[in-house]
Amino acid sequence: MSIKTISSREVYRNPWTRVREDIIERPGGVRGVYGVIEKDPACIIIPLERTPEGEFVYLVEQYRYTIGKRFKEFPQGGWETEDIVPEELAHGELGEETGLIAGRMTLLNEMWIAYGVMRQRHYLYLAEDLKQGVTERDPEEHDLEIFRVSVAEFEQMILRSEIQDNCTLAAWGAYKVWREHNPRPE
């Protein structure tokens, strides 16, 4: 089943987002309007630390204006440009938000964020062999806080609906499936 685009016009643009309105035609000739939000590629990073005491993840918490609340989530974001090298973006976003430097960065998946309404590619990386460096936050990240939690506590946070970011939840699910098919050598 395919939808034909009859016309398309940009209705809004800022440095981070573009919105377009398309006149479409569905099979059978029925026309309609489709609103599309376009954003440049982004990444989400699972910073995973293994110690003799267990496994830990790093989360960031910040105020999310659209919902008027603070939530914990994995570090994520983009550089407002279409031309990115995904792994460089992942290293950059991880360092910018947490100050962490990853000795190993593994691409786990490529996802689309909310593709029912938005066109944005999201690259999922696992960051390991972590060292602490210096943060270089953007102005909108001024209130960002960093948390190191055990994997067990993180999963309890998911079960208690304390983690509500769909990208973080999808990332963790993808990681769990990936880990099942790529066990760590002992």
TrEMBL record:
<keyword id="KW-0378">Hydrolase</keyword>
<comment type="similarity">
    <text>Belongs to the Nudix hydrolase family. NudK subfamily.</text>
</comment>
<dbReference type="GO" id="GO:0005829">
    <property type="term" value="C:cytosol"/>
</dbReference>
<dbReference type="GO" id="GO:0019693">
    <property type="term" value="P:ribose phosphate metabolic process"/>
</dbReference>
<protein>
    <recommendedName>
        <fullName>GDP-mannose pyrophosphatase</fullName>
    </recommendedName>
</protein>
<dbReference type="InterPro" id="IPR015797">
    <property type="entry name" value="NUDIX_hydrolase-like_dom_sf"/>
</dbReference>
<dbReference type="Pfam" id="PF00293">
    <property type="entry name" value="NUDIX"/>
</dbReference>
<dbReference type="GO" id="GO:0006753">
    <property type="term" value="P:nucleoside phosphate metabolic process"/>
</dbReference>
<feature type="domain" description="Nudix hydrolase">
    <location>
        <begin position="38"/>
        <end position="171"/>
    </location>
</feature>
<dbReference type="GO" id="GO:0016787">
    <property type="term" value="F:hydrolase activity"/>
</dbReference>
<dbReference type="InterPro" id="IPR000086">
    <property type="entry name" value="NUDIX_hydrolase_dom"/>
</dbReference>
